[in-house]
Design goal:
The protein is of the alpha+beta class. It has a domain of 343 residues: DD-peptidase/beta-lactamase superfamily (Beta-lactamase), CATH 3.40.710. The protein has 20 helices and 18 strands. Strands 1, 2, 3, 4 and 7 form a five-stranded mixed beta sheet that branches.
Length: 580
C-alpha cells in the first residue's frame, strides 16, 4: 500500500525547500511578439521623458542665469540683426574718412532692478548726458526691456560695469565713425543708428557701402580740404559772415579735390546739427552769383563772334528798362572795350554785350555749360537752378551780370572749368577714377575762346578787381563776383554774396578754386568794403599759395617771356583799375 501524498513529496518542491528548477513554460509566437512591443514602448516613453526634462532644465538655466527673459531676449536678437557692416570711405591718398566700429549699447530689465532710484543716481553720475527723470521713468516701468544709452565708449562701458547693478546689460552694435569730424562732414555725410546712410556719400552710396568689402575711394584730398576749410573759416570769422563755400576742382577731369560748406557739423554727433549747419551750400544751395557770370557772357559773345577783344560798348550812362536801372559799381562814364568790361566788372557793358548777341544765343550757351538744369553728381543733395520763365530782354540783361538766375556753386565751377580748359565740359565727380582713366568730355566752345578768356581772367588779377587773389609764382587768373541777395520781391543792399573764382596756372590751367563768403561785413582793414575782391579773392590767393606745392606745381617767374606772351592781349589798350 502506497504512502499517502504529502506536500513535501511534491516533485516541484523537494524537501529542505530547495526546489530544482522548474521547466519553463513555453510561449507561443504571438505572445512573445506582444511582449517585445511592450518593452520597446516603455523604453521609448522613458527616453522621451528624459529628453523633455533635460530641455526644460536647460531652458531654466538659460532664462535665469544666462539670457534676459521675454522682451529683453527679443530685443537682443533684433539688435544683433540690425547691425549692418559698411565699407570704409577713404580720400584719394587712402586717408580714412569713415569706418565702422563695434560699440556697446546699454539696456536694462526694470524687473531686475532692486532700487530704481539708487540705480538712476549712479548711472547718471557715470553718464551725465542722460536725463535723470527719463532714466528713472524707464527703470520703474513695467517693461522687461528698455534702452538706456546707445553706442557707448569703452571707458563708459567699463564705468557702468563697475557700478555692479543687476539688470544692466550690454548689446554690441556697429557704430559709424568719422575720424576727420567737421572737416569733411558735407561730403561724407552720416548714418543713423541702424547704419543707414542719411546724407552725403553715405546716402548716395548706401547700398554699395553695405555690399562691398574694399574701401570706397573719393577724389577728395584731405590736405587740400583742410587748407581750404582753414582759409574760408578765417574769412567767415574776420568778416562776421553768415557762412561760406569753398571748392577745388581738376579742370581736366572734373574731380572735386575739396568741398567746404560753412557752417558745418560733426557727423559723429548728427543729433547736435541744426538745419543751417547740415545744409550743403556747395551743392544744394542755389544763389545769384553776380559778376562771376560775366565769364560766361563774355565767352558766349566771343564764341558766337558777336564780339572780339577789340569790341567796345557804351557804358557812359546807366540802362533804364521798365522799372529797373542797371548801373556800374565803378562808374567810368565812357565806352569800354571787352577786356575793360571784364576787368572793371561793368554791369552796363555786360548787359549791352548780351543784348547784342541776343537772348537765344545766351540761353543756348548757358545750356551747353549745364547751367540751366541740375548737375549730375554723386552727392544726393543737389539744388536745381532757378531760371527766368518767361525770359524777356530784361532777363537777358540781368543774367549777363549774374542776377535773375540762381545756380549752385558746384554748377558754377563745372561751367568755369570748361571755359579755361580748352572748352571741354566734364561732369563733376567726387569718386577717384582708376589710374590712366581719361574721362570723356563735350566740346562746348572753341579753344580760341578759351585762350581769350584765360587772358581776360589773368587781367582781372593783374590789374583789376581780383588783385588780392594773386599767389606769386603760380600765375592766378579769375573773376570776382558780388551779388545782392534776394529778400522778398527785392534785393537786400547790405546782404551780399561775395565770391572769387580762380584758376591756376592760368597760362596752362590745371585746377580751379572757388571761394564764396555769405553776407560778409566790411572792416577797417577793407575800408568798409565787403565785395568779392576784398573778402573772397584773398581766400583763393592764400589757398593756392599753400596748395600748389602739395599738388606738385613748382613756382615760376610770372614775368617770363613765354608766360607774358601766352597771356598778352594784343591791340587793346587797358588801363589799370584804381581800386578793388
Amino acid at each position: 500500500m502506497k504512502a499517502p501524498h504529502r506536500y513535501d513529496d511534491n516533485p516541484c518542491k523537494p524537501r529542505h525547500f530547495k526546489p530544482p528548477p522548474c521547466a519553463p513554460v513555453a510561449l507561443d509566437e504571438a505572445a512573445q511578439q506582444t511582449l517585445d512591443i511592450g518593452r520597446t514602448r516603455l523604453l521609448v516613453t522613458a527616453g522621451l521623458f528624459v529628453v523633455a526634462f533635460a530641455v526644460i532644465a536647460l531652458r531654466l538655466v538659460d532664462v535665469t542665469l544666462v539670457k534676459p527673459a521675454g522682451e529683453a531676449r527679443i530685443a537682443h536678437t533684433t539688435a544683433g540683426k540690425a547691425a549692418v557692416s559698411r565699407a570704409d570711405i577713404v580720400d584719394r591718398n587712402g586717408v580714412l574718412l569713415a569706418t565702422t566700429l563695434s560699440s556697446p549699447s546699454l539696456f536694462a530689465n526694470p524687473k531686475q532692478i532692486l532700487d530704481a532710484r539708487e540705480a538712476t543716481q549712479k548711472l547718471v553720475e557715470v553718464l551725465p548726458d542722460l536725463s535723470q527723470s527719463e532714466v528713472y521713468a524707464k527703470l520703474t516701468s513695467d517693461r522687461s526691456f528698455v534702452w538706456l544709452k546707445r553706442l557707448l565708449t569703452p571707458r563708459q562701458e567699463f564705468e557702468v560695469n563697475q557700478l555692479g547693478i543687476p539688470g544692466f546689460q550690454f548689446q554690441r552694435e556697429e557704430r559709424r565713425v568719422y575720424p576727420e569730424g567737421n572737416l569733411i562732414a558735407h561730403v561724407v555725410g552720416y548714418t543713423g543708428l541702424d547704419n543707414k546712410g542719411l546724407a552725403g556719400i553715405e546716402r548716395g552710396f548706401d547700398d554699395i557701402l553695405k555690399e562691398r568689402k574694399q574701401p570706397l575711394q573719393l577724389s577728395i584730398d584731405i590736405r587740400l580740404q583742410e587748407i581750404l576749410h582753414d582759409e574760408l573759416s578765417r574769412a567767415v570769422q574776420d568778416f562776421s559772415a553768415k557762412g561760406g563755400v569753398g571748392l577745388v576742382m581738376d579742370v581736366h577731369t572734373g574731380e572735386v579735390l575739396a568741398l567746404v560748406s560753412l557752417p558745418d557739423f560733426d557727423p559723429n554727433k548728427p543729433g547736435t546739427a541744426t538745419p543751417d549747419t547740415i545744409f550743403n551750400r556747395a551743392t544744394l544751395g542755389t544763389y545769384e552769383m553776380g559778376s562771376t557770370f560775366k565769364i560766361f557772357t563774355t565767352a558766349m559773345a566771343l564764341d558766337s563772334h558777336t564780339a572780339t577783344l577789340a569790341s567796345s560798348y557804351d557804358a557812359s550812362h546807366p540802362i533804364h528798362i521798365g522799372r529797373f536801372t542797371i548801373h556800374d559799381y565803378h562808374d567810368l562814364h565812357r565806352a569800354l572795350s571787352v577786356p575793360e568790361i571784364f576787368e572793371y566788372s561793368s554791369n552796363i557793358g555786360a548787359a549791352r554785350m548780351a543784348m547784342d548777341a541776343g537772348t537765344d544765343r545766351l540761353k543756348d550757351f548757358l545750356g551747353r555749360l549745364g547751367l540751366l538744369k541740375p548737375p549730375v553728381f554723386e552727392i544726393p543733395e543737389i539744388g536745381a537752378p532757378l531760371v527766368p520763365s518767361p525770359w524777356h530782354d530784361v532777363n537777358t540783361m540781368t543774367v549777363a551780370f549774374g542776377h535773375g538766375i540762381s545756380v549752385s556753386p558746384l554748377q558754377l565751377a563745372i561751367a568755369a572749368s570748361a571755359v579755361v580748359n580748352g572748352g571741354i565740359l566734364h561732369p563733376a565727380t567726387i569718386i577717384k577714377p582708376p589710374p590712366g582713366f581719361i574721362p570723356a568730355g563735350q566740346q562746348v566752345m572753341s579753344t580760341r575762346t578759351s585762350d581769350d578768356m584765360r587772358r581776360l581772367m589773368r587781367l582781372v588779377v593783374e590789374q583789376g578787381t581780383g588783385e588780392f587773389a594773386a599767389a606769386p609764382g603760380y600765375v592766378v587768373g579769375g573773376k570776382t563776383g558780388t551779388a545782392e541777395k534776394v529778400s522778398g520781391h527785392s534785393y537786400a543792399h547790405k546782404a551780399l554774396l561775395s565770391s572769387f573764382l580762380g584758376a591756376f596756372p592760368i597760362n596752362d590751367p590745371r585746377y580751379l578754386v572757388l571761394a564764396i563768403v555769405d553776407e560778409p561785413h566790411g572792416t577797417p582793414k577793407t575800408h568798409g568794403f565787403a565785395t568779392g575782391g576784398w573778402t573772397a579773392a584773398p581766400v583763393v590767393g592764400h589757398a593756392i599759395q599753400r596748395m600748389a606745392p602739395l599738388l606738385g606745381i613748382p613756382p615760376v617767374d610770372e614775368n617770363a617771356p613765354e608766360i607774358r606772351s601766352a597771356l598778352a592781349i594784343d591791340g587793346v589798350q587797358v588801363k589799370k583799375l584804381a581800386s578793388n
